[in-house]
Design brief:
Strand content: 15-25%
CATH superfamily: Aldolase class I
Strand order of the largest sheet: 1-2-3-4-5-6-7-8
Number of strands: 8
Order of helices and strands: EHEHEHEHHEHHEHEHEH
Bound molecules: phosphoenolpyruvate
Number of domains: 1
Shape: globular
Distance between the termini: 17 Å
CATH topology: TIM Barrel
Radius of gyration: 17 Å
CATH class: Alpha Beta
Structural class: alpha/beta
Length: 247
């Protein structure tokens, strides 16, 4: 199973459901539809209405983050995995570099993963090196550390997807070379196999994915799908990625 996940970030109002309607119409008719899953992570404000609207359709709704506590608490503005599940979210991103930059450290991320899984949310755990780490050839060690500090064998791997998103690539139009990506995804899967005893969860690539560079990205067999930011806000651009992937 491949994954095409659209991360809307701070984008969208109720009428933006039209974008998802167009993606859903494409998906419903696509002969390849059994080979992949479409997940959209809109802002918190749209999760409930979108999840209800797409309940009987194939698009699944997730959140872009969740709080590191179960159930209810006295933390102002926090939204727990329990609350997300109760309004129909099926997935949650955890560890996006935007949230790491705002203070999400390994211990917070571990709690987020733990409580998300406890509440039956599937976790898309994001990792990635920054520009300086890449320049200093520390990519592989940084990724390994981000994985082993948070993921544990007791988390069921069926509930986890890892998204490799180099920070320098997000929103920049630049992506790693084919050779670099082959090396990093193989490395990530090796680390994951060690954590999860033999079998790796799915590993996605994210960072400036579009309908053109997907031609190169699809050649890397280790990649199980894509986390798409900017291009997921346009139904045409998002559909082009899927169309070109299966072309
Ligand atoms: C992201 O922020 O998760 C992302 C992949 O963004 P973009 O596709 O715009 O680089």
């Amino acid at each position: 199973m491949k994954y095409f996940i659209g991360n809307w970030k701070m984008f969208g109002v109720p009428k933006s459901v039209n974008i998802l309607n167009r993606i859903n119409s494409f998906y419903a008719k696509d002969k390849n539809r059994n080979k992949y899953r479409v997940i959209i992570t809109p802002p918190f404000t749209l999760i409930e209405s979108f999840a209800k609207y797409f309940q009987r359709k194939k698009i699944l709704i997730g959140s872009q983050n969740c709080y590191q506590k179960d159930f209810f608490s006295s933390d102002t503005s926090a939204i727990s995995p329990y609350m997300l599940k109760s309004v129909g979210a099926k997935y949650t991103l955890i560890g996006h570099s935007d949230n790491r930059a705002e203070g999400d450290n390994d211990s917070i991320l571990k709690d987020k993963v733990k409580f998300a899984i406890k509440n039956n949310l599937k976790v898309v755990f994001c990792i990635g090196e920054n520009k300086l780490e890449k320049k200093n050839k520390r990519t592989l060690s940084v990724l390994k550390k981000q994985l082993i500090k948070v993921l544990e064998s007791k988390f069921d791997k069926k509930n986890i997807i890892v998204a490799y998103e180099p920070i320098w690539s997000i929103g920049s139009g630049k992506i790693p070379t084919k050779q670099e990506l082959q090396k990093t995804t193989t490395h990530i899967k090796k680390v994951l196999k060690n954590i999860f005893k033999k079998k790796s969860p799915a590993v996605l690539y994210g960072g400036s994915v579009d309908g053109n560079n997907i031609d190169m990205l699809k050649q890397i067999s280790e990649i199980d799908g894509f986390l798409v930011g900017g291009a997921s806000k346009s139904s045409k651009k998002f559909i082009d990625i899927i169309k070109n992937y299966y072309r």
